[in-house]
Amino acid sequence: MSRALDLRLAGHTLVSCFTQNKDELVLEFNHAGRESFFVKAQLDAPTCALSFPNSFARARKNSIDLFAPAVLARVTGIRQFENERSFCIDFHNETSLLFKLHGSRGNILLLEGEKTTALFRNNLKADWAISPATLHRPLAFTESDFHTNQHQLRPWLFTFDRWIWRWLEEKNFAALPVAEQWPLLSATYRQLLQPTGYHIGIVDGKAMLSLLPFPWTDERVFDDALTAANEFVWAVAHKQSFAQQKEAARHAVLQRIKQIDTYLQKSRDRLRALNEEKHYQQWADLIMANLHGIAEGARSVTVLNFYDHDKPLEIKLKPELSAQKNAEVLYRKSKNQSIEKTNLEEWIKTKSHAREVLLQTLATVEAASDPKQLRQVVLPTSEQKQKETPLPYHAFEFQGFHIWVGKNAQHNDTLTFRFGYKEDLWLHAKDVAGSHVLIKHQANRPFPKPVIERAAALAAYNSKRKTETLCPVIVTPRKYVRKRKGDPPGAVVVEKEMVVLVEPKL
Question: Which DSSP state fits 105?
Answer without folding.
Answer: G
